[in-house]
Amino acid sequence: VRARVMQVEESPDVSYTDIGGLDEQMNEVRETVEMPLLKPEMFEEVGIEPPSGVLLYGPPGTGKTMLAKAVASETDATFIKMAGSELVHKFIGEGAKLVRDLFEVARAHEPAVLFIDEIDAIASKRTDSKTSGDAEVQRTMMQLLSEMDGFEDRGEVRIIAATNRFDMLDRAILRPGRFDRLIEVPKPDEEGRKLIFEIHTRNMNVADDVDFGKLADEVIEASGADIKAICTEAGMFAIRDDRTEVCMDDFEEAWAKIQAEEEDDEISKT
Ligand code: ATP
């Protein structure tokens, strides 16, 4: 079961230079995650406890997972990822047991960054229905909080959670000593979009006519994940055309295609 739902990476292959347009967020993550891992004695000497949990929130595909991976990689920590939705189970006690397993694995791999994606799946505001399913989800959440509270030597395991649905969260998890560092990870601004284009084309054979500043200005609603998709799709356009150099038109057509697909998705959802 563990192997299926838990992702463990000894040293993920993501560095801070792979992330575009999130300098402020990166600094905050470093301060709260990297410092306690690399210099736990600083906190001891100063006499404060490092923040226990960091919550990253913002729209999908903006680099939340990347931030968590990068900080693990740059501190030589093991990256352990679990999706909140995987912790939701029908059988009583199963979710709580998974949470215990998760922390056990993290302790066994110290230093570790424990990343819980979609935390809203287990930490949404209580709904009205008093079904047993809800009670089970509640117990899973309580187990997570008690594992976090129970850390004697927290320096070696850092906890990062992420959500796209900040408004849905039960405020109880944001109390001091829990996820008490909130970091918003928004969609990139124009400068950020340009940087992300530059990052994802590092290994691409890009023609001289490609203007990343202009592209950044054109792809207004794009997330980092969208920009990555645009770059790959642009490369596909070149290949289909039997060219090995990717030109400006390829990027623009790729964006048009991806937007059309996203609109189709929206329509099929409604
Ligand atoms: P979700 O909420 O959907 O889990 P997320 O915020 O965790 O999304 P990531 O998984 O980090 O998003 O991003 C998906 C991919 O998009 C990354 O692997 C990366 O290639 C690209 N990407 C997203 N944001 C950025 C960014 N700021 N800089 C560079 N690449 C980015």
UniProtKB/TrEMBL annotation:
One of its GO terms (molecular function) is ATP hydrolysis activity. This is Proteasome-activating nucleotidase. The chain holds residues 132 to 401 of 403 of the full protein. Residues 50-189 form the AAA+ ATPase domain. Transmembrane segments: none annotated. The keyword Chaperone applies. Homohexamer. The hexameric complex has a two-ring architecture resembling a top hat that caps the 20S proteasome core at one or both ends. Upon ATP-binding, the C-terminus of PAN interacts with the alpha-rings of the proteasome core by binding to the intersubunit pockets. Consists of three main regions, an N-terminal coiled-coil domain that may assist in substrate recognition, an interdomain involved in PAN hexamerization, and a C-terminal ATPase domain of the AAA type. GO terms for cellular component: cytoplasm; proteasome-activating nucleotidase complex. ATPase which is responsible for recognizing, binding, unfolding and translocation of substrate proteins into the archaeal 20S proteasome core particle. Is essential for opening the gate of the 20S proteasome via an interaction with its C-terminus, thereby allowing substrate entry and access to the site of proteolysis. Thus, the C-termini of the proteasomal ATPase function like a 'key in a lock' to induce gate opening and therefore regulate proteolysis. ATP binds at residues 61-66, 200. Keywords: ATP-binding, Chaperone, Coiled coil, Cytoplasm, Nucleotide-binding, Proteasome.
